[in-house]
Design a protein that fits this description.
This protein is α+β, with helices and mostly antiparallel strands and 187 residues long. Helices cover 26% and strands 27% of the residues. The chain is built from four helices and ten strands. The strands form three sheets. Strands 1-2-3-4-6-5 form a six-stranded antiparallel beta sheet, covered by helices on one side. A two-stranded antiparallel ribbon has the order 7-10. A two-stranded antiparallel sheet has the order 8-9. A hairpin with a 3-residue loop joins strand 2 and strand 3. The protein starts with 7 loop residues before the first strand and ends with a helix. The mean pLDDT is 81.
Length: 187
């Protein structure tokens, strides 16, 4: 089944689509009871990649609760997909009713460049995110401008579906953003 704006999953109504990937979609969603807005990612069941993302998500949720990292709130598995809710990125749009996720990719599209101070602040926050992951024995594996978001004004790592422990040797990530040691077969 394919989900669209207006559909409901659990207690969440899908408000707008924020992005789409090879295995699923991300929506801005609202809890029908609390009215809290979250990002809701739907991952369609497609064998090992779906299983890998679900396992990475569970591992992340287990070792990274209540940290400076992206918070995962609800995970649910269905017949043809699984979905989870997480912090929604801040809104770059000043237009009422329009949502543009505050990601590094969107900031660069709109502003073309960032100030030196903004880059330093972002780098400090992302290094703290990576340190938190690495201290817990995890790797992000998909660092790219689309996966750097601002939540409550702070830069954090998004799309944690490819997070894995440091012993993993499988190739995962976005071509063009893979680290050289992965491409060279060192790690």
């Amino acid at each position: 089944m394919s989900y669209k704006v207006g559909d409901t999953l659990g207690t969440y109504t899908l408000l707008c689509e924020c992005g789409q990937g090879a295995y699923g979609s991300v929506f801005l969603a609202e809890n029908t009871f609390t009215k809290r807005r979250v990002a809701l990612k739907i991952v369609y069941s497609q064998g090992r990649s779906c299983e890998r993302e679900l396992n990475g998500l569970i591992q992340y949720q287990t070792v990274c609760p209540r940290t400076n990292l992206l918070q995962i709130y609800h995970v649910e598995k269905g017949d043809d997909c699984f979905w989870y809710t997480m912090d929604a990125a801040d809104n770059l749009s000043a237009e009422e009713g329009k949502y543009i996720p505050d990601t590094l990719a969107n900031r660069l599209r709109e502003q073309r460049r960032l100030t030196t101070d903004a880059v330093r602040k972002m780098a400090d926050e992302l290094i703290a995110n990576l340190e938190t992951l690495h201290r817990r024995g995890l790797l992000h594996r998909d660092l790219k401008p689309d996966n750097i978001l601002w939540v409550d004004g702070s830069a954090i790592l998004g799309d944690i579906g490819l997070v894995t422990d440091t012993s993993s040797v499988s190739l995962a990530g976005t071509p063009g953003f893979l680290p050289p040691e992965v491409l060279a077969g060192i790690r």
